[in-house]
């Protein structure tokens, strides 16, 4: 790998997260040949399981169930984590990543305790979902192009739809896909809570786009703009309706012609009254000419 490659230009925490996860998967494959199940050691079991160990809520996020599981998670890290790490700095980004992953673990443990159903959980998905949430929250209007959606979609819409999908999958009795959907939602939740906490503390790296009051202001402005556009379009349509249905279809030239005809009519009436009282001989040449032109119409 050359020194000027894109991977080498990644910020340190993003790079090390990818490297560590790849190395752990290769180590898992290697130890499996000697009959050692690394997943049983580093994967996360329920608190009440005899296989639970105190380090598992941390180590589980560096374990994966196979190549494609690892690839999907690390591809998301590769795409979105550098933006956050460069904005926050390496230390703050790493804290956010770990808090999201630990929050996902805690959420999954809570679901196991409430449902009485437990198993083993591995993967960085909880932390990755925290990254996705932070990106959509801090850069809500960035347009994303997804393979399964043929049109650009804003980051905030993508995050919202993804969260709703995970919730639906988590509560659906027919899901049966062996995916820890509530752990994903836990990554969303704890990432959001940490962003709100940072904003209250005035950390400038997390401030933009995080404030709930700013979000409310954005929603109000969006609603006001929508209402304003609707009213303007309604007024335009009503104006067109009046133009075509209530106004007389008369041009300015026609109105001016009517005014001229009325003036000539008044002059002719005055000439006729003069003839009635004084006779035709009392008319001037101009009045006779006016009367003659009128009689020809």
Topology:
Layout: H1 12-32, H2 38-42, E1 44-45, H3 56-59, H4 67-88, H5 90-115, E2 120-121, H6 125-138, E3 143-146, E4 149-154, H7 155-171, H8 181-201, H9 204-207, H10 212-245, H11 252-278, H12 285-296
Helix pairs in contact: 1-4, 4-5, 4-6, 5-6, 5-8, 6-7, 6-8, 7-8, 11-12
What report would you give on this structure?
- The chain is mainly alpha-helical and 297 residues long.
- It has 3 domains: 7-210, Rhomboid-like fold (Up-down Bundle), CATH 1.20.1540; 211-247; 252-296, no CATH class.
- Helices cover 70% and strands 5% of the residues.
- It contains 12 helices and 4 strands; from the N terminus they run ααβαααβαββαααααα.
- It is rod-shaped and about 135 Å long.
Name its key features.
Rhomboid-like fold, 297 residues, 3 domains, 12 helices
Number of strands: 4
In whole angstroms, how far apart are the ends? 99 Å
Number of helical regions = 12
Averaged pLDDT = 76
- CATH class annotation of the largest domain: Mainly Alpha
Task: Give me the Rg, rounded.
Answer: 39 Å
* CATH-scheme architecture of the largest domain: Up-down Bundle
Q: What is the CATH superfamily of the largest domain?
A: Rhomboid-like
Estimated helix fraction: 55-70%
